[in-house]
Amino acid sequence: MAATEAIVTISGLNKWYGDFHVLRDIDLAVQRGERIVICGPSGSGKSTLIRCINALEDFQEGRIVVDGIELGPNLKRVHEVRREVGMVFQSFNLFPHLTVLENCTLAPIWVRHMPQKEAEATAMRYLERVHIPDQANKYPGQISGGQQQRVAIARALTMNPKVMLFDEPTSALDPEMVKEVLDTMVDLAKEGMTMLVVTHEMGFAKEVADRVIFMDAGQIIEANTPDQFFANPQHARTKLFLSQILR
Amino acid sequence: MSDTASFVRQDLAPQRPAPLRARGIVAFARSRLFNTPANALLTIVGVLLLWAIIVPTVRFLFVDAVWAGADRTACLAETAGHPVGACWPFVQAKLTQFIYGFYPEAERWRVNLTFLLAAILLVPLLIPRVPAKTTNALLFFIAFPFVAFFLLYGGGLQGFVIGWVAHLVSTFLVAIGDAGARLAELGAGAGGASSAFPTLLRVVGEGIVWLSTFLLYVSFPLLWLRDQILASGQPLWADVAATAVIVSAVAFAVGGGIRTGWRALLVSLIVFAIIAGLIRAMGLDRGGLTVVDTRQWGGLLVTLVVAVTGIVASMPVGIALALGRRSTIPLIRLFSIGFIEFWRGVPLITVLFFATYMLPLFLPGNFTVDGLVRVLIGIALFAGAYNAEVIRGGLQAVPRGQEEAAAALGLSHGRTIGLIVLPQALRHVIPGLVNSFIALFKDTSLVSIVALFDLLGSLRASFADPAWATPTTLFTGFAFAGIIYFVVCFAMSRYSLFVERRLNAHQRN
Predict the structure, then answer these.
(1) What residues of A are in the B interface, CB distance below 8 Å?
(2) Distance separating alpha carbons of residues A68 and A62, to the nearest angstrom
(3) What pLDDT, on a 0 to 100 scale, did the predictor assign at position A74?
(4) What's the total number of domains in chain B?
(5) Among the three residues B232, B252, B282, which one is the final residue of a domain in this structure?
(6) Best CA proximity match to B171, nearest among B230, B218, B212, B232
(7) pTM here?
């Protein structure tokens, strides 16, 4: 793929929390339609990295370009970027005072100024895609964790994003519900969505990822195709990590 | 099963009702009231205590009470032939005073009409099933206060928004210029050019004069418009028309201009048509109703005006202060903290005294505000500071992830607060807010110490009437006031529980 095809370009990214250097010299180019899985031990900065892409975190050095919109350290064009980037959180973060349908129409109505009827039709289409149109009028507290996370995915998709970020989407789920969420994500990947996924679901990484990135101590330690990454890890830290999680 | 590790269930155990000894009154008494000797003792003491309170109360209010009579003689033990409890004829005779205070008798229909309007607008607002909540809320919170003002106080309109704003601006600027001139004079008069201070005074004074002159020039179009309106012969209608044109134009532009602004323009024109209709219907252009000075208001009318205004006005103040206290802008945060701590640190009585007796001394001579209005503002700010802390508690209970999720969807900060954070925060703090509303309702009785005769004030005034001086008049009066306060507060409490249950119906997990 040509370099001009990159939809997200991160260069020389550095971030500190006070004196703590959380992200160190991150360079990463994500191609249009590429699926990247980011893994690493806790505290390695993987969540912080993807949260920088839609400016939920600020940073002190470097630049991030999303679909031609440059995000410098002063985060001037935050809103433009956020309209193009969807995000799914570990703890779902659905709005508990709104129904499932209202959760999905909120942003189209208030950000894209879509008429309510049209927004509802769009929302229903995405709810059908994640296989829960029948829950549209329930409140988030009335449906299961897996269903909630699928609503969260549908909610992000209603904004028609060019890139989707997933921040450990299955970590807060009961074991029985992990699969339904992963299946939804696999479907999404098959449709050609650009995805950056922070996860420890190595099965998912093997099935859909184009690239697996291993992070530790705020740096990218190793990046490779899933085949190479799992079969033939190069760095000692990667080998140790894989030996811990693959049993 | 205990001897082998393997077990497979064949039939699922069915659900059965609880055994009889865990249900029913006898079970309740045995397990909750008399289960230990100490609890049995407490139960007996409690029952005796209730007996000691309830029996005399019922005797006083109903059994021994006198129900009819023309004056004090009916409520004397000699006339009644038994020890007398409550003297209800007294309440009957003074009821109008309790409700209207010294509001002129011929004008009391205006109070009744205001009460009726309030009920018509408020009841559907409180019942969730009734549609058109937005229109209803706008009518109650925006339109009703103006209508109520002209109904209760009376008087007409000389001008409208432009005249009023122009008056405010010119008064303010002239006052500033005046102060600047005096400062400069002071600097010049102090003489002794040797010291720097008088010179400084003069320079600052002249600077202020210059600034106010400059601002007067800037606001010249407004003042010119005002003069044209005054010269037109129909100042009120000219002002309404001019305001309608300006506001509609702004609404049209903000609404998106040629492309999408038509809706906003239409809404604006309709609103102004309604305003014009109201002005016409209430005869505000012809002097309106007879003015009834607020010093003549009293009784339940004052209590309700103070309480409702305080409750309604304290909410936006509280929300603004709570958000301000969490702001990342230091100036706003410091202001909010200072404001909240100041009003919370001062007793309400001090606030009322200050508003009534001290404020007029500080304000410039030609600038007067009605006594009741001063009290209303004082109470709104006081209650607002309390609400702010309650609401801040609610804001803290909304997880950080909610704001992040809204931000990730591209919602602006203002919309995130308005659509996501505040609705959740306010739900969390309904009990706390209603708590302060109830406290506020009862605190309104404090206005009687600044010469406003609320329900309690009217009551105390009526005790002075020798025609009704009996041994039980005092107790009857206070019992009556107590019942009214209790009914209102209890209604608020029950309604808040209803709202809470309704709003939280979906959060069963």
Answers:
(1) 54, 56, 79, 82-83, 85-87, 89, 91, 93-97, 106-107, 110-111, 138-139, 141-142, 152, 155-156, 159
(2) 16
(3) 65
(4) 3
(5) B282
(6) B212
(7) 0.82
Q: What distance in Å separates the CA atoms of residue B264 and residue B247, rounded to the nearest whole number? A: 10
Selecting from A97, A152, A159 the residue whose C-beta is nearest the C-beta of B410 gives A159
Residue B384 shares a structural domain with residue B470? yes
Report yes or no on B2 lying in a domain. no
Model confidence band, residue A1 (pLDDT cutoffs 50, 70, 90): very low
- Cβ pair B326, B350 in contact under 8 A: no
Residues of B in contact with A87 (CB under 8 A): 405, 408
The answer to whether the beta carbons of residues A165 and A10 sit under 8 Å apart is no
Does B156 fall in a domain? no
Q: Do A110 and B402 touch (CB under 8 A)?
A: no
Looking at the partner chain, which of B405, B419, B507 has a beta carbon nearest the beta carbon of A93?
B405
Interchain contact, A107 vs B402, CB within 8 Å? no
d(CA B303, CA B452): 10
Residue reference for tokens 């940073």? A59
- Residue B34: pLDDT over 90: no
Given B63, B88, B113, the domain boundary residue is: B63
pLDDT digits (tens, 9 = 90+) for A84-131: 899 999 999 999 999 999 999 999 999 888 889 999 999 999 999 998
Predicted local distance difference test score (pLDDT) of residue B501 = 87
Q: Tens of pLDDT along B386-440?
A: 999 999 999 999 999 999 999 999 998 899 999 999 999 999 999 999 999 999 9
The span from the CA of A160 to the CA of A177, in Å, is 26
8 Å CB contact of A155 and B409: yes
Instruction: Say yes or no: B130 and B166 in one domain.
Output: no
Which residues of chain B have a CB within 8 Å of the CB of A86?
408
pLDDT digits (tens, 9 = 90+) for B325-381: 999 899 999 999 999 999 999 999 998 888 888 777 776 655 667 788 888 989 999
Q: In what order do the strands lie in the sheet with A69-71?
A: A20-31, A6-17, A61-66, A69-71
Per-residue pLDDT, averaged over B82-107, amounts to 90
Residue in A101, A110, A112, A166 to test binding to B, most B beta-carbons within 10 Å: A110
| Chain segment B307-340, per-residue pLDDT in tens | 999 999 999 999 999 999 999 899 999 999 999 9
Instruction: Give the pLDDT band of residue B82 (cuts 50, 70, 90).
Output: confident
| B406 closest CA partner among B397, B417, B396 | B417
- Give contacts of A159 with chain B, Cβ < 8 Å: 409-410
Pairwise CA distance, residues B337 & B327, whole Å: 11
Contacts of B415 in chain A (CB under 8 A): 110
What type of residue sits at position A96?
P
What pLDDT, on the 0 to 100 scale, is given for residue A51? 92
For residue A110, report the phi and psi dihedrals to the nearest 5 degrees.
Answer: -90, -25
Is the domain of B347 the same as that of B306?
A: yes
* 3-class secondary structure, B256: coil
Nearest by CB to B404, from A93, A106, A142: name it: A93
Q: Is residue B482 part of a domain?
A: yes
> Do B223 and B172 sit in the same domain of this protein?
yes
Could you list the residue range(s) of the whole structural domain that residue B36 is in? 24-63
Tell me if A87 and B410 make a contact (CB, 8 A cut-off).
no
What CATH number does the domain containing B138 carry? 1.10.3720.10
Mark whether B139 and B192 lie in a shared domain: no
My answer on whether B262 and B300 are in the same domain is: no
State how far the Cα of A108 lies from the Cα of A158, in Å rounded to an integer: 7
B306 and B431 co-located in one domain: yes
The share of chain B scoring above pLDDT 70, in percent, equals 95
- Same domain (yes/no): B105, B54: no
Whether residue B288 is contained in a domain is answered as no
Write down the pLDDT at residue B365. 57
CB contacts of A48 in chain B (<8 Å) are none
